[in-house]
């Protein structure tokens, strides 16, 4: 059975909020998610280019820096932060959204320092991503319905100390007064809800 492909339905409100340059680069190593998100963004009026690695993302950013970008933090060949740097080196008005399944405050701060305008935890849906991309400067994001759990706050603290220790597990474990193996298990898991 072949998949039926239909022409995207573009809402004029969506294209008006995108602006005159609809270029969008999506960098993610999760192929099915990448293609679904690309299709969803095309239906909203973006002209989408995709990349499945840091190297491919940097190459696309060098040849044609986009006005909008959605970049996964952890990719198979490195960090999405490198793609942000490559985009910022060529274009300073790009609206960049950082996506990650391993969200923590320290990497969010790094992403914002490098030029990301927002940071969304996976699984983020196309509507959330679209809203973040077209949000006007100075607009406040809606408050989350569910605040962070105590487990998440603990995990965030551990991640912050880990980043401060330059990702040195032994030093982080010493500062947190925690066994090294326990820390390694915590770091290997996804963020709690």
From TrEMBL:
Gene3D superfamilies: 3.40.50.2300, Homeodomain-like. SMART domains: REC (SM00448). The modification 4-aspartylphosphate is found at residue 72. PROSITE patterns: RESPONSE_REGULATORY. CDD domains: REC_RegA-like. The keyword Phosphoprotein applies. It comes from the Bacteria. It holds the Pfam family Response_reg. The keyword DNA-binding applies. Residues 23-137 form the Response regulatory domain. Keywords: DNA-binding, Phosphoprotein, Transcription, Transcription regulation, Two-component regulatory system. This is Two-component system response regulator RegA.
């Amino acid at each position: 059975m072949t998949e039926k492909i239909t022409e995207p339905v573009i809402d004029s409100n969506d294209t008006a909020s995108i602006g005159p340059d609809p270029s969008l680069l999506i960098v993610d190593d999760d192929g099915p998610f990448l293609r679904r998100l690309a299709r969803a963004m095309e239906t909203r009026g973006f002209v989408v280019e995709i990349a499945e690695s840091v190297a491919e993302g940097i190459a696309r950013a060098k040849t044609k820096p986009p006005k909008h970008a959605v970049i996964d933090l952890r990719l198979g060949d490195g960090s999405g932060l490198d793609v942000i740097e490559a985009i910022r080196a060529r274009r300073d008005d790009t609206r960049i959204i950082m996506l990650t399944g391993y969200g923590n405050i320290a990497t969010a701060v790094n992403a914002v320092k490098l030029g990301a305008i927002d940071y969304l935890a996976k699984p983020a849906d196309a509507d959330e991503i679209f809203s973040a991309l077209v949000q006007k400067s100075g607009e406040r994001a809606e408050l989350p319905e569910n605040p962070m759990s105590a487990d998440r706050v603990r995990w965030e603290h551990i991640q912050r100390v880990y980043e401060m220790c330059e990702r040195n597990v032994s030093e982080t474990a010493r500062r947190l007064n925690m066994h090294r193996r326990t820390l390694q298990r915590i770091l290997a898991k996804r963020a709690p809800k």
